[in-house]
Structures are given as C-alpha cells and as structure tokens.
C-alpha cells in the first residue's frame, strides 16, 4: 500500500504519544475540582476518549498534561487521515488492490504470463473450481480486463522478483505455472519459486524440446510441457483428415503412437443406435470415456449402457477406428455438415431396420 514507511513511522510516534499520555495522566493529573488522582485504568480510558475528542474529565492545570490533551486528538486525527488516504489510494489503484487480495489466497495456483496460453490456463483452473492468481508484466495486455472481470487478481509486475512472488503468498500456494513466451523467463521464474518453496509444484511451459527434457531431469521440475511436443501430434493427425478433436503423443522412440479423443453425436439413422457401450468398445476397439444424454453427463459409462439417438459420447481410439466410427455417425463438430448432407454415413438398410 502507498506510503507504508511514512505510515509506519507515524504509527510508532502515535504509540509513543499514547503511552506517554497514559503515564502523564496517571502520575501528574489532578482533578481541579476534587483534587482526585487517576488510576492506570482511568488514565488509559481517558486517553482513548481524547482520541475521539471526548473529555470525560475536567481540563487540567498542569501545562504538561494540557499538552497531552492537545497532542492526543491531533495524533489520532493525523493517523486516521493517513489511513483513509492509504485505503482510498489502494481502492483506486487496481494493481495494489489485486496484490492485497492475492496475499490472502491459500492453496491457489500462480499463473505467470497472460498470453494466449496463460489466458486459457487461467480459465480452465477456474472451471475446475480452483483459485488462481495471475502475474503479468505488461499493463496493456489485451486479456487483462476480461481476466479481472472473472474475479482473478492480476498483478502487473515481473514474476522473477522474489518480493512479487512473496506478495502473492507463494508460501501457501499449491502450484506455479510459468507460461510466458520466453523460455529463459519461464525457467528463471521456476527456479526462483523452487528456491523459495522446494516442495512447490511447478508446471513449466517451454518451446525447446531438449531444454525441456534437461530441465525436467536436472532441476526436478514436476512437469515440463514443450509446446512443440503438445501441438505436433494434433497437427500431424489433423493433416491426415482424421475425425479427431484432440491428439497426444504416447510412448517414446519407436514405440511412440498417438492417443486421440473425439466427440461423436449419435444420429437416428446410425446403425450404432441400440449398441451397448461394451459392444461398441469390443467391435470397434475404442474406449468410451464419457457419455452425454439429455443434460446428464456420465464419466466412463458402464458396459451395459445402451446408446440412443441424440447421445454424445467421447471416444479414444486409433485413427482407423475413428474413421470407421465417423462413417457410421458424425463427429459432433461435423453434425451441422451432416444435416446439410455434407457428411455421409452408412445408415440402416430396410432389412436391418425390420
């Protein structure tokens, strides 16, 4: 918050004045009317009453005590004014307000870099019902306003700085995701975070495949994702005109293959209507990962669940198996083309329908 050093000095002076005033009233105050003295409790109470310009006791005759009667409310007024100014400045300075909010988070994820990847990572973390704090270096970032509208604190600062990581309560964080567009910046953030919190989960974005492998092995980073490794399988599979939504590399070396995921919509004309999940998996050598029917989502449906027209199901299979399924019912993303006659499928023959 602004003016922290001046405010701290004023608070020290204020505390000193209050303590001195209590001692002065206890030792020197004498009621001009009755000649009575004050005990420690009465002296303390009267000092706090003077802070709000209240005087339950008569004005003293001693000049030292009279000075306390003037000094206490003036100090209280100055301290209150300084506090109002600091709070007001924080409210109008969005970055300071977000920093104050971020410092209260626990078990959260710290996303460093609000580019296209950081933006999507932040949205996914929120969708998973987890809390997230973002550190972004550029004030003119195009995603800034939208991410803040989601209720996410966004700190405009350099995430490589120790004090910035401390300000977002890294000691209580669950994980940190350095995902800027610069490998060295991401590595620097990851190493500084690991130095501060050795057990912190680090998910690191890197472009260079070899560097990513070395970082994972040499620095014990929990997860290192190379963008090239992630995107290459999807590009390769898409180039084959395979009906897939997502693709991931599986295995290494000569044993490497592609794991695919595609969502299909079961149309009434499809011969797959009436299949059970178990029959579909056995005949087409696919894995049905999820099913959506009438607003109900089922993860890993049982083998005896019967597939009905209008169902959507998520399947993982080889490219050949996906092509076979796509010839019998359209992928969900191609459903509109199917309705327009642009995605032909094999339908039930009259004999089969009977």
Task: Please give a handful of descriptors for the protein shown.
Rossmann fold; elongated; 3 domains; five-stranded antiparallel β-sheet; 354 residues; single chain; alpha/beta; Alpha-Beta Plaits; 14 helices
Secondary-structure map with pairings?
Blueprint: H1 4-28, H2 40-51, H3 63-92, H4 94-102, E1 109-112, H5 116-127, E2 132-136, H6 144-149, E3 154-156, H7 162-167, E4 175-178, H8 183-196, E5 201-206, H9 209-219, E6 223-226, H10 227-239, E7 246-250, E8 257-265, H11 277-284, E9 287-293, E10 296-299, E11 312-316, H12 319-326, H13 335-339, H14 350-353
Parallel strand pairs: 1-2, 1-4, 2-3, 4-5, 5-6
Antiparallel strand pairs: 7-8, 8-11, 9-10, 9-11
Helix pairs in contact: 1-2, 1-3, 2-3, 3-4
Morphology call = elongated
Give the SSE order as H and E letters: HHHHEHEHEHEHEHEHEEHEEEHHH
- How many strand elements? 11
Give me the side-by-side strand order of the main sheet: 3-2-1-4-5-6
How much of the polypeptide forms β-strand, as a percent range? 15-25%
C-alpha Rg, in Å?
Answer: 34 Å
What does this structure look like?
The chain is an alpha/beta fold and 354 residues long. The protein folds into 3 domains: 4-91, Helix Hairpins (Orthogonal Bundle); 96-231, NAD(P)-binding Rossmann-like Domain (Rossmann fold), CATH 3.40.50.720; 240-353, Regulator of K+ conductance, C-terminal domain (Alpha-Beta Plaits, 2-Layer Sandwich), CATH 3.30.70.1450. The chain is built from 14 helices and 11 strands. The strands form 2 sheets. It has a 6-stranded parallel sheet, sandwiched between helices. A 5-stranded antiparallel sheet has the order 7-8-11-9-10. A hairpin with a 6-residue loop joins strand 7 and strand 8. Helix 1 (4-28) packs across helix 2, helix 2 (40-51) crosses helix 3 and helix 3 packs across helix 4 (94-102). It is elongated. It starts with a helix and ends with a helix. Mean pLDDT is 82; it is low at 350-354.
